[in-house]
User: What shape does this take?
Amino acid sequence: MLGLQQAGGDCSVQPVWQNLLSTLAGGLIAIGAWVVQDQVATRRRRRSLRSALAAEIASLVELTRRQRYADELRQFAGALTSAAPGTEGTTLTVPVRQAYFTVFESNASTIGELPPDVATGVVRFYQGARSLLDALSDQRPKEVHIYAGERAARYLELAGGVEELCKLGDEIAGKLRSTT
Assistant: This one.
């Protein structure tokens, strides 16, 4: 042991290895605390993301069902098939005046933090919803020379798409709520 003796008392210097170990231990404790704090913050952020996405998806599904969009599409298809000649130009359009996907769009860069099957489902839901909106939007190019029967089949297909999207939304919202 290194030590210094002084004339009126005992003054010792700790060995270098003790100082080094103390510094290293303090550094490791600080790094460990930072890592734990970062993991807690990441878990909290992911939980918040899952909760917000689940709420947005569930809200969109509920709104779609409450508005009875699939039924409206089927009724329109029925009206097209029984339409008088010369009315083939009738088109059902849905004016989209809102940004309905605010949670998804503002968090798109973090969707990859979700479990792979959940992230895939979330993307499938929103892509499906966008596709349906595009198909019905008054912003799309007008259809030309499509016969009423073909259009009726297309609207029936869209009605089925709305129902499938609602089922997917229910499934994904449930997974988002239950994912740890």
Remarks:
- The mean pLDDT is 81.
- Residues 16-67 form the longest helix (52 residues).
- The radius of gyration is 31 Å.
- The helical segments are 16-67, 69-81, 102-106, 116-136, 148-178.
